[in-house]
Specification:
It contains 13 helices and 17 strands. It is globular, with a radius of gyration of 25 Å. About 12% of the residues have low confidence.
Length: 418
Protein backbone atom coordinates (compact mmCIF):
# COMPACT_ATOMS: atom_id res chain seq x y z
CA UNK A 1 0.00 0.00 0.00
CA UNK A 2 1.06 3.64 -0.40
CA UNK A 3 3.07 5.05 2.48
CA UNK A 4 2.93 8.74 3.26
CA UNK A 5 5.48 8.89 6.06
CA UNK A 6 8.69 7.43 4.58
CA UNK A 7 10.12 10.83 3.61
CA UNK A 8 10.39 11.95 7.26
CA UNK A 9 13.63 11.56 9.23
CA UNK A 10 13.65 11.40 13.02
CA UNK A 11 16.53 11.21 15.47
CA UNK A 12 16.73 10.24 19.13
CA UNK A 13 18.83 12.47 21.38
CA UNK A 14 19.83 12.43 25.02
CA UNK A 15 17.96 14.41 27.63
CA UNK A 16 20.66 17.04 28.06
CA UNK A 17 21.56 17.43 24.41
CA UNK A 18 20.60 20.81 23.01
CA UNK A 19 19.12 21.33 19.57
CA UNK A 20 21.61 24.10 18.87
CA UNK A 21 24.53 21.70 19.30
CA UNK A 22 22.77 19.16 17.10
CA UNK A 23 22.26 21.73 14.34
CA UNK A 24 25.87 22.87 14.59
CA UNK A 25 27.24 19.32 14.37
CA UNK A 26 25.10 18.09 11.47
CA UNK A 27 24.40 21.33 9.61
CA UNK A 28 20.70 20.41 9.45
CA UNK A 29 17.65 22.05 10.98
CA UNK A 30 15.92 20.06 13.73
CA UNK A 31 12.67 20.53 15.64
CA UNK A 32 11.73 18.72 18.82
CA UNK A 33 8.49 16.77 18.33
CA UNK A 34 8.60 14.69 21.51
CA UNK A 35 10.77 14.27 24.56
CA UNK A 36 14.01 12.76 23.32
CA UNK A 37 12.93 12.74 19.65
CA UNK A 38 13.77 15.38 17.05
CA UNK A 39 12.62 15.82 13.47
CA UNK A 40 15.16 16.66 10.81
CA UNK A 41 13.54 19.14 8.44
CA UNK A 42 14.61 19.19 4.83
CA UNK A 43 15.56 22.75 3.77
CA UNK A 44 13.53 22.37 0.58
CA UNK A 45 10.46 21.44 2.62
CA UNK A 46 10.43 24.87 4.27
CA UNK A 47 9.74 26.43 0.87
CA UNK A 48 6.52 24.43 0.38
CA UNK A 49 3.01 25.46 1.34
CA UNK A 50 1.95 25.88 4.94
CA UNK A 51 -0.54 23.00 4.89
CA UNK A 52 2.21 20.63 3.68
CA UNK A 53 4.53 21.65 6.51
CA UNK A 54 1.79 21.19 9.11
CA UNK A 55 0.92 17.81 7.64
CA UNK A 56 4.54 16.66 7.87
CA UNK A 57 4.73 17.89 11.46
CA UNK A 58 1.65 15.84 12.38
CA UNK A 59 3.18 12.75 10.74
CA UNK A 60 6.44 13.35 12.62
CA UNK A 61 4.52 13.38 15.90
CA UNK A 62 2.89 10.08 14.99
CA UNK A 63 6.25 8.50 14.16
CA UNK A 64 7.73 9.81 17.42
CA UNK A 65 4.82 8.33 19.38
CA UNK A 66 5.56 4.94 17.85
CA UNK A 67 8.95 4.93 19.62
CA UNK A 68 7.41 5.04 23.09
CA UNK A 69 4.31 2.98 22.15
CA UNK A 70 5.65 0.36 19.70
CA UNK A 71 2.67 -2.01 20.15
CA UNK A 72 -0.07 0.61 19.89
CA UNK A 73 -2.47 0.92 16.96
CA UNK A 74 -3.07 4.33 15.44
CA UNK A 75 -6.75 5.09 14.91
CA UNK A 76 -9.01 8.01 14.07
CA UNK A 77 -7.38 11.20 12.74
CA UNK A 78 -3.89 9.71 13.15
CA UNK A 79 -4.78 6.74 10.95
CA UNK A 80 -6.38 9.10 8.43
CA UNK A 81 -3.11 11.02 8.14
CA UNK A 82 -1.14 7.81 7.71
CA UNK A 83 -3.51 6.68 4.95
CA UNK A 84 -3.13 10.07 3.24
CA UNK A 85 -6.77 11.10 3.64
CA UNK A 86 -7.96 14.70 3.74
CA UNK A 87 -7.88 16.18 7.24
CA UNK A 88 -9.32 19.61 7.89
CA UNK A 89 -7.39 19.93 11.16
CA UNK A 90 -3.69 20.02 10.30
CA UNK A 91 -2.52 19.80 13.92
CA UNK A 92 -4.60 17.02 15.47
CA UNK A 93 -3.92 15.03 18.60
CA UNK A 94 -2.34 11.58 18.28
CA UNK A 95 -4.91 8.82 18.86
CA UNK A 96 -3.72 5.33 19.74
CA UNK A 97 -5.48 2.13 20.76
CA UNK A 98 -4.19 0.30 23.83
CA UNK A 99 -5.21 -3.07 25.21
CA UNK A 100 -4.90 -2.02 28.82
CA UNK A 101 -6.48 0.72 30.86
CA UNK A 102 -5.83 4.08 29.21
CA UNK A 103 -5.55 6.02 32.45
CA UNK A 104 -6.14 9.71 32.98
CA UNK A 105 -2.71 10.85 31.81
CA UNK A 106 -2.45 12.43 28.36
CA UNK A 107 1.20 13.08 27.49
CA UNK A 108 1.70 16.47 25.90
CA UNK A 109 3.64 16.94 22.69
CA UNK A 110 5.55 20.24 22.60
CA UNK A 111 4.83 23.14 20.32
CA UNK A 112 6.82 23.13 17.07
CA UNK A 113 8.42 26.27 15.66
CA UNK A 114 9.48 25.99 12.02
CA UNK A 115 11.41 28.67 10.20
CA UNK A 116 10.27 29.00 6.58
CA UNK A 117 11.90 30.77 3.69
CA UNK A 118 15.34 32.31 3.51
CA UNK A 119 15.99 35.81 4.91
CA UNK A 120 18.30 36.73 2.02
CA UNK A 121 16.51 35.04 -0.87
CA UNK A 122 12.98 36.00 0.13
CA UNK A 123 11.98 39.67 -0.33
CA UNK A 124 9.88 39.61 2.82
CA UNK A 125 12.40 37.67 4.89
CA UNK A 126 12.03 34.41 6.73
CA UNK A 127 8.78 33.63 8.53
CA UNK A 128 7.89 31.17 11.25
CA UNK A 129 5.10 28.63 11.47
CA UNK A 130 3.94 27.89 14.99
CA UNK A 131 2.22 24.53 15.44
CA UNK A 132 0.37 24.31 18.76
CA UNK A 133 1.00 21.61 21.31
CA UNK A 134 -0.93 18.34 21.06
CA UNK A 135 -1.74 15.35 23.21
CA UNK A 136 -1.43 11.58 22.96
CA UNK A 137 -4.95 10.25 23.57
CA UNK A 138 -5.24 6.56 24.41
CA UNK A 139 -8.44 4.61 23.76
CA UNK A 140 -9.65 1.25 25.05
CA UNK A 141 -10.50 -1.69 22.82
CA UNK A 142 -14.02 -2.29 24.24
CA UNK A 143 -14.92 1.37 23.77
CA UNK A 144 -14.28 1.39 20.01
CA UNK A 145 -14.96 -2.25 19.18
CA UNK A 146 -12.75 -4.72 17.29
CA UNK A 147 -10.29 -3.05 14.95
CA UNK A 148 -8.62 -4.61 11.94
CA UNK A 149 -5.04 -3.43 11.48
CA UNK A 150 -2.42 -3.22 8.76
CA UNK A 151 1.29 -2.47 9.00
CA UNK A 152 2.95 0.25 6.98
CA UNK A 153 6.56 1.31 6.73
CA UNK A 154 7.40 4.31 8.84
CA UNK A 155 10.11 6.94 8.71
CA UNK A 156 13.81 6.33 9.18
CA UNK A 157 15.10 6.63 12.75
CA UNK A 158 18.63 7.63 13.74
CA UNK A 159 19.50 5.81 16.94
CA UNK A 160 22.35 7.36 18.92
CA UNK A 161 22.82 9.50 21.97
CA UNK A 162 26.23 11.07 21.39
CA UNK A 163 26.16 11.44 17.63
CA UNK A 164 23.18 11.27 15.37
CA UNK A 165 25.37 10.84 12.30
CA UNK A 166 27.04 7.67 13.57
CA UNK A 167 23.89 6.23 15.11
CA UNK A 168 22.25 3.08 13.79
CA UNK A 169 19.36 3.51 11.36
CA UNK A 170 16.24 1.40 11.15
CA UNK A 171 12.79 1.48 9.65
CA UNK A 172 9.73 1.52 11.84
CA UNK A 173 6.61 -0.53 11.25
CA UNK A 174 3.46 1.28 12.34
CA UNK A 175 0.30 -0.61 13.18
CA UNK A 176 -2.63 1.31 11.70
CA UNK A 177 -6.33 0.62 11.47
CA UNK A 178 -7.57 -0.36 8.02
CA UNK A 179 -9.02 2.29 5.75
CA UNK A 180 -12.60 1.13 6.36
CA UNK A 181 -12.20 1.09 10.15
CA UNK A 182 -10.49 4.46 10.00
CA UNK A 183 -13.49 6.00 8.25
CA UNK A 184 -15.88 4.51 10.81
CA UNK A 185 -13.89 5.78 13.79
CA UNK A 186 -13.49 9.22 12.21
CA UNK A 187 -17.25 9.43 11.77
CA UNK A 188 -17.71 8.50 15.44
CA UNK A 189 -15.02 10.63 17.09
CA UNK A 190 -14.14 13.64 14.91
CA UNK A 191 -16.21 16.83 14.62
CA UNK A 192 -18.99 16.44 12.08
CA UNK A 193 -17.57 18.78 9.43
CA UNK A 194 -14.06 17.32 9.73
CA UNK A 195 -15.37 13.75 9.56
CA UNK A 196 -17.46 14.58 6.48
CA UNK A 197 -14.37 15.81 4.62
CA UNK A 198 -12.41 12.68 5.52
CA UNK A 199 -15.32 10.42 4.55
CA UNK A 200 -15.59 12.02 1.10
CA UNK A 201 -11.93 11.31 0.39
CA UNK A 202 -12.10 7.77 1.79
CA UNK A 203 -15.15 6.87 -0.26
CA UNK A 204 -13.53 8.38 -3.34
CA UNK A 205 -10.49 6.19 -2.85
CA UNK A 206 -12.39 2.99 -2.10
CA UNK A 207 -14.73 3.42 -5.07
CA UNK A 208 -12.00 4.59 -7.50
CA UNK A 209 -14.30 7.39 -8.57
CA UNK A 210 -13.87 8.70 -12.11
CA UNK A 211 -16.09 11.54 -13.28
CA UNK A 212 -15.73 10.44 -16.92
CA UNK A 213 -17.43 7.12 -16.03
CA UNK A 214 -20.30 8.31 -13.87
CA UNK A 215 -22.51 5.21 -13.99
CA UNK A 216 -19.80 2.79 -12.98
CA UNK A 217 -18.37 5.14 -10.35
CA UNK A 218 -21.74 5.84 -8.72
CA UNK A 219 -22.51 2.13 -8.46
CA UNK A 220 -19.14 1.52 -6.83
CA UNK A 221 -19.78 4.42 -4.48
CA UNK A 222 -23.09 2.92 -3.34
CA UNK A 223 -21.41 -0.43 -2.71
CA UNK A 224 -18.80 1.28 -0.53
CA UNK A 225 -21.53 3.20 1.31
CA UNK A 226 -23.49 0.01 1.98
CA UNK A 227 -20.34 -1.74 3.27
CA UNK A 228 -19.59 1.11 5.66
CA UNK A 229 -23.16 1.13 6.96
CA UNK A 230 -23.01 -2.63 7.57
CA UNK A 231 -19.76 -2.18 9.44
CA UNK A 232 -21.28 0.62 11.50
CA UNK A 233 -24.19 -1.62 12.47
CA UNK A 234 -21.87 -3.75 14.63
CA UNK A 235 -21.85 -0.98 17.22
CA UNK A 236 -24.71 -1.13 19.74
CA UNK A 237 -27.63 1.25 19.37
CA UNK A 238 -26.70 3.19 22.48
CA UNK A 239 -23.12 3.80 21.34
CA UNK A 240 -22.12 7.42 21.22
CA UNK A 241 -22.55 9.27 17.88
CA UNK A 242 -23.77 6.23 15.94
CA UNK A 243 -26.77 8.11 14.53
CA UNK A 244 -24.56 11.02 13.50
CA UNK A 245 -22.04 8.69 11.88
CA UNK A 246 -24.83 7.00 9.89
CA UNK A 247 -26.00 10.40 8.61
CA UNK A 248 -22.44 11.36 7.60
CA UNK A 249 -21.91 8.12 5.68
CA UNK A 250 -25.27 8.46 3.91
CA UNK A 251 -24.55 12.03 2.75
CA UNK A 252 -20.81 11.88 2.01
CA UNK A 253 -19.99 12.05 -1.69
CA UNK A 254 -17.08 10.53 -3.58
CA UNK A 255 -17.36 13.13 -6.35
CA UNK A 256 -15.49 15.81 -4.38
CA UNK A 257 -12.10 16.34 -5.99
CA UNK A 258 -10.52 18.48 -3.27
CA UNK A 259 -10.80 19.21 0.42
CA UNK A 260 -12.34 22.60 -0.39
CA UNK A 261 -15.12 21.03 -2.46
CA UNK A 262 -15.83 18.56 0.36
CA UNK A 263 -16.17 21.36 2.92
CA UNK A 264 -18.38 23.35 0.55
CA UNK A 265 -20.59 20.28 0.10
CA UNK A 266 -20.78 19.95 3.89
CA UNK A 267 -22.10 23.52 4.10
CA UNK A 268 -24.79 22.58 1.58
CA UNK A 269 -25.71 19.25 3.18
CA UNK A 270 -25.77 20.58 6.74
CA UNK A 271 -28.41 23.15 5.67
CA UNK A 272 -30.60 20.32 4.34
CA UNK A 273 -30.22 21.40 0.72
CA UNK A 274 -30.19 17.84 -0.59
CA UNK A 275 -31.25 18.38 -4.23
CA UNK A 276 -27.61 18.71 -5.23
CA UNK A 277 -25.26 16.80 -7.52
CA UNK A 278 -21.47 16.65 -7.57
CA UNK A 279 -19.48 16.46 -10.80
CA UNK A 280 -22.66 17.15 -12.73
CA UNK A 281 -22.10 16.48 -16.43
CA UNK A 282 -23.40 19.05 -18.93
CA UNK A 283 -23.24 18.34 -22.66
CA UNK A 284 -24.15 21.25 -24.88
CA UNK A 285 -23.05 23.32 -27.86
CA UNK A 286 -21.61 26.75 -27.03
CA UNK A 287 -23.49 29.87 -28.03
CA UNK A 288 -22.85 30.73 -31.66
CA UNK A 289 -22.86 34.49 -31.07
CA UNK A 290 -20.12 34.24 -28.45
CA UNK A 291 -17.61 31.67 -29.58
CA UNK A 292 -18.55 30.75 -33.14
CA UNK A 293 -19.16 27.29 -34.50
CA UNK A 294 -17.51 24.65 -32.29
CA UNK A 295 -18.40 21.05 -31.50
CA UNK A 296 -20.44 20.18 -28.45
CA UNK A 297 -18.50 20.49 -25.18
CA UNK A 298 -18.65 18.40 -22.03
CA UNK A 299 -18.41 20.28 -18.74
CA UNK A 300 -18.37 19.02 -15.16
CA UNK A 301 -19.74 21.29 -12.45
CA UNK A 302 -18.29 20.86 -8.95
CA UNK A 303 -21.59 21.19 -7.08
CA UNK A 304 -24.78 21.77 -9.07
CA UNK A 305 -28.46 22.32 -8.42
CA UNK A 306 -29.84 21.04 -11.76
CA UNK A 307 -33.41 22.22 -11.26
CA UNK A 308 -32.46 25.81 -10.39
CA UNK A 309 -29.40 25.73 -12.71
CA UNK A 310 -27.14 27.05 -9.96
CA UNK A 311 -23.46 26.03 -10.06
CA UNK A 312 -21.21 26.23 -6.98
CA UNK A 313 -17.50 26.33 -7.76
CA UNK A 314 -14.55 26.23 -5.39
CA UNK A 315 -11.50 28.10 -6.69
CA UNK A 316 -8.51 26.34 -5.20
CA UNK A 317 -4.87 26.90 -5.98
CA UNK A 318 -4.15 23.32 -7.02
CA UNK A 319 -6.39 23.42 -10.12
CA UNK A 320 -4.66 26.53 -11.48
CA UNK A 321 -1.26 24.93 -12.07
CA UNK A 322 2.26 26.02 -11.13
CA UNK A 323 3.80 27.97 -13.99
CA UNK A 324 2.52 31.28 -15.37
CA UNK A 325 1.49 29.66 -18.64
CA UNK A 326 -0.54 27.00 -16.81
CA UNK A 327 -2.27 29.61 -14.66
CA UNK A 328 -3.08 31.78 -17.68
CA UNK A 329 -4.42 28.80 -19.63
CA UNK A 330 -6.50 27.75 -16.62
CA UNK A 331 -8.16 31.15 -16.32
CA UNK A 332 -8.78 31.29 -20.07
CA UNK A 333 -10.41 27.86 -20.20
CA UNK A 334 -12.38 28.59 -17.01
CA UNK A 335 -13.71 31.81 -18.51
CA UNK A 336 -14.74 30.06 -21.71
CA UNK A 337 -16.44 27.30 -19.73
CA UNK A 338 -18.38 29.73 -17.54
CA UNK A 339 -19.37 31.84 -20.52
CA UNK A 340 -20.77 28.82 -22.35
CA UNK A 341 -22.76 27.63 -19.36
CA UNK A 342 -24.12 31.09 -18.55
CA UNK A 343 -25.33 31.40 -22.12
CA UNK A 344 -27.55 28.37 -21.45
CA UNK A 345 -29.05 29.66 -18.23
CA UNK A 346 -26.58 28.52 -15.56
CA UNK A 347 -25.74 30.90 -12.71
CA UNK A 348 -22.38 30.64 -10.94
CA UNK A 349 -21.46 31.28 -7.33
CA UNK A 350 -17.73 30.98 -6.59
CA UNK A 351 -16.05 30.40 -3.24
CA UNK A 352 -12.48 30.69 -1.98
CA UNK A 353 -10.72 29.41 1.14
CA UNK A 354 -11.75 32.38 3.27
CA UNK A 355 -15.42 31.70 2.49
CA UNK A 356 -15.13 28.18 3.91
CA UNK A 357 -14.14 29.61 7.29
CA UNK A 358 -17.45 31.53 7.39
CA UNK A 359 -19.99 28.74 6.82
CA UNK A 360 -23.00 30.77 7.95
CA UNK A 361 -22.41 33.53 5.44
CA UNK A 362 -21.54 31.03 2.69
CA UNK A 363 -24.82 29.22 3.34
CA UNK A 364 -26.68 32.54 3.14
CA UNK A 365 -25.09 33.21 -0.24
CA UNK A 366 -26.16 29.79 -1.52
CA UNK A 367 -29.73 30.15 -0.28
CA UNK A 368 -29.97 33.66 -1.72
CA UNK A 369 -28.69 32.43 -5.08
CA UNK A 370 -31.30 29.66 -5.08
CA UNK A 371 -33.99 32.29 -4.42
CA UNK A 372 -32.73 34.38 -7.31
CA UNK A 373 -31.13 37.13 -5.22
CA UNK A 374 -27.51 37.87 -4.42
CA UNK A 375 -25.53 38.37 -1.20
CA UNK A 376 -22.09 39.96 -1.18
CA UNK A 377 -19.14 37.83 -0.08
CA UNK A 378 -17.88 38.11 3.47
CA UNK A 379 -14.66 39.76 2.36
CA UNK A 380 -16.55 42.30 0.18
CA UNK A 381 -18.87 43.79 2.78
CA UNK A 382 -18.55 47.56 3.04
CA UNK A 383 -18.94 49.48 6.26
CA UNK A 384 -18.50 48.45 9.88
CA UNK A 385 -21.40 47.78 12.27
CA UNK A 386 -22.67 50.60 14.43
CA UNK A 387 -23.08 50.53 18.20
CA UNK A 388 -26.32 48.55 17.95
CA UNK A 389 -24.63 45.90 15.83
CA UNK A 390 -26.40 46.89 12.61
CA UNK A 391 -24.35 47.32 9.44
CA UNK A 392 -23.83 50.88 8.33
CA UNK A 393 -24.88 52.04 4.88
CA UNK A 394 -21.92 52.52 2.54
CA UNK A 395 -20.87 56.06 1.78
CA UNK A 396 -21.61 57.39 -1.67
CA UNK A 397 -18.01 58.30 -2.37
CA UNK A 398 -16.75 54.88 -1.28
CA UNK A 399 -15.71 52.30 -3.87
CA UNK A 400 -18.14 49.45 -4.50
CA UNK A 401 -17.93 46.24 -6.50
CA UNK A 402 -19.73 45.70 -9.78
CA UNK A 403 -19.85 42.81 -12.23
CA UNK A 404 -18.58 43.13 -15.78
CA UNK A 405 -17.17 40.90 -18.49
CA UNK A 406 -13.55 40.74 -19.55
CA UNK A 407 -13.18 42.24 -23.06
CA UNK A 408 -10.59 39.59 -24.02
CA UNK A 409 -11.98 36.28 -22.79
CA UNK A 410 -15.54 37.29 -21.81
CA UNK A 411 -15.29 35.92 -18.24
CA UNK A 412 -17.56 37.40 -15.59
CA UNK A 413 -15.44 39.55 -13.24
CA UNK A 414 -16.11 41.34 -9.96
CA UNK A 415 -14.17 44.62 -9.91
CA UNK A 416 -14.09 47.86 -7.94
CA UNK A 417 -15.87 50.90 -9.31
CA UNK A 418 -15.88 54.36 -7.77
Amino acid sequence: MTTYIEHLHLATTSRHRRLSALKKQTGQYYARVKRGVTWRIDPSATQSETWKIRNDAALARIAATCLTHPHATFIGPSAALLHGLWCWDRSPDVHILTHGRPGNESPTLPRIEIRCGHPRRSPIGASRISIPAARIIRHQVPAVGPIRTVRIRGSSIDRGRESVVSGSRRRMLLRVATLEDTLILCALTMPASHAFVTLCDGMRRLSHFNKHHQDRSRKAEERVRAALLRQLSRFPRGHRNVARARWLIQHADAGCESIGEAMLLWIVRSRKLHAVRTQFEVRQRPAESLVGARPASVYFIDIAFPREKVALEFDGRSKRGVSHSQIAHSYQSEGRRQRDLEAHGWVFERFIWDDLHHPEHSAARIEARLRGTRVESADRRIGSPNRRGRPRAPARDRCQRVECRCPECGALLNVLAS
